[in-house]
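Customer escalation, tier 2.

The customer says the design service returned an amino acid string that "doesn't look like it belongs to this structure." They asked us to rerun it and document both sides in this ticket. The original structure tokens are below, unchanged.
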């Protein structure tokens, strides 16, 4: 396996973890939790799920630009020769990173405080804010994956 293809595999795995994790949480786990759990248990579940998932997202946040810049230099000779689809992917990554940081730094602390205080209405409101932000990030991630898959071959 060439170094370029090793970076590509690592890059794709990081994207799969991040976007696939959001897809699973939004489309599978959330509806199952709503139907099977009462609000206090549901909030505790998400309170436990987010840190576990976010650890993997942080890994993806680091791996994606490192592997992407490596591929950029190996495949295109650096930033000066960067094609438009790569520019678009970088821009969409930055949008996803911004949305993730908003959840991690601004929306997760109110959920933590609400769950620790047993304030289920406030926790539900905080979880709703996180859900909307994750939904937006999932949409951006799906668009990014489409751009990556539909790109011209290297």
């Amino acid at each position: 396996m060439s170094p370029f293809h090793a970076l590509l595999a690592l890059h794709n795995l990081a994207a799969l973890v991040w976007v696939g994790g959001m897809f699973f949480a939004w489309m599978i786990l959330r509806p199952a939790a709503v139907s099977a759990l009462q609000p206090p248990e549901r909030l505790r579940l998400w309170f436990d799920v987010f840190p576990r998932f976010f650890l993997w997202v942080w890994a993806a946040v680091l791996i994606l630009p490192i592997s992407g810049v490596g591929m950029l230099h190996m495949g295109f000779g650096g930033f000066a020769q960067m094609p438009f689809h790569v520019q678009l992917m970088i821009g969409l990554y930055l949008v996803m990173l911004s949305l993730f940081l908003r959840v991690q730094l601004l929306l997760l602390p109110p959920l933590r405080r609400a769950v620790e205080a047993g304030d289920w209405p406030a926790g539900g409101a905080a979880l709703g804010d996180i859900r909307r932000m994750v939904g937006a990030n999932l949409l951006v991630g799906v668009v990014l994956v489409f751009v990556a898959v539909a790109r011209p071959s290297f």
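Tier 2 assessment: The sequence is consistent with the input. The mean pLDDT is 95. The chain has four helices and no strands. Sent an explanation to the customer and offered a walkthrough call.
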